[in-house]
């Protein structure tokens, strides 16, 4: 019975044909030392991702409807059952090889499809191979494009932040231009020079003050000498300056100095005073030329002292400004260091993201030109000549192996189920008493015959 059942099964099972194609995982065409790709992942991981994308309900349903699969059976299958049968009929086997320094590496994979009809198996296998190749290109191109787009957006954001920080840094430097730390040494030198100039001006001011006091004494002496000469009888009088001589002296001084010169201004005042006196009909007061010269020197000294005082005040203001800038410099430096640190960090991030963006663009170009790591159809699916299942010889051989095993198991089962008492030991166990005499079975002549 078992042998017959095995033969019946071996002859009645429908043949299953398998068509398979081999896809090679080819490395990048351009040397990674020259151009490094960013899409490098483990091949087996990428193959599994692509398999999940290809074996979606949408793709499998399209293939089932295109080739009218799973419609010949006696039982009508639902769409979900057809898709499950389709997934069971598809197999992906990885081909690995030992690579020095990297261990076991997936270098290819074999994609196969099983069906009862060899033509359908071959067509569906080709369809699946095409889907795998297209999905790989699509996935890598999309990933490269998304990476480039993301890095471009991040680079634009960082560039905006960098421009904001640059504007802040420029505004800060403009607002505190006189207290920047890089000019601290210059300000210290300027302060030292200003203090030296202040000492020189103080010295010149004191000298001018002493000179003015001496000129006041000279003026008093000149006035005293003029009065003595005017009151002495029989003495020769000093030459008296008249209006004509003053005007001549005024004209001569204008050829040498400007109107703002102290000597010119003194002569001009004398001329104005004499003209005013003559206009009132009074007599002209004789003025000694020595007195006029002393007065001119006194006016010049006073002008010089006023100029020195103004310079001193300017230097004092400058020194106060420099001191405040020097005191303000440490606080400005703290703010400047913070801004420069933020600016430097933003600049480094921007340069880093720009480098990654350029690398992503190169990777995108490699993917678009199919120069990066790719899937190459090494062996296209062929028309299957022999079914892969069932192995009828193995089924029949299995029947021959199971037949004696089944027979022995049946004998043991029947023996276990039988209630007959056979043998002295069985009788002893049933009765609970020892058997004294055992008469063996006597075969008759008919039984022997």
Largest sheet strand order: 2-3-1-4
Helix-strand makeup class:
alpha+beta
* Cα-to-Cα separation, first versus last residue: 31 Å
Task: Label the overall shape.
Answer: rod-shaped
Number-wise, the strands total 4
What is the C-alpha radius of gyration, as a whole number of Å? Answer: 61 Å
Count of individual helical segments: 12
Our estimate of the beta-strand percent is 5-15%
H/E element order: HEHHHEEHHHHHEHHH
Poorly predicted tracts of residues: 230-240, 281-286
Explain this structure:
The chain has 449 residues and is α+β, with helices and mostly antiparallel strands. Helices cover 67% and strands 9% of the residues. It is built from twelve helices and four strands. Helix 5 packs antiparallel against helix 9 and helix 7 (243-254) packs antiparallel against helix 8. The chain starts with a helix and ends with a helix.
Write the layout of secondary structure elements.
Blueprint: H1 2-12, E1 17-26, H2 43-54, H3 57-67, H4 79-89, E2 90-99, E3 103-115, H5 118-175, H6 184-231, H7 243-254, H8 262-279, H9 289-368, E4 374-379, H10 392-417, H11 424-431, H12 445-448
Task: Compose a concise summary of this entry.
By secondary structure, the chain is an alpha+beta fold. The protein has helices spanning 2-12, 43-54, 57-67, 79-89, 118-175, 184-231, 243-254, 262-279, 289-368, 392-417, 424-431, 445-448; strands spanning 17-26, 90-99, 103-115, 374-379. Strands 2-3-1-4 form a four-stranded antiparallel sheet.
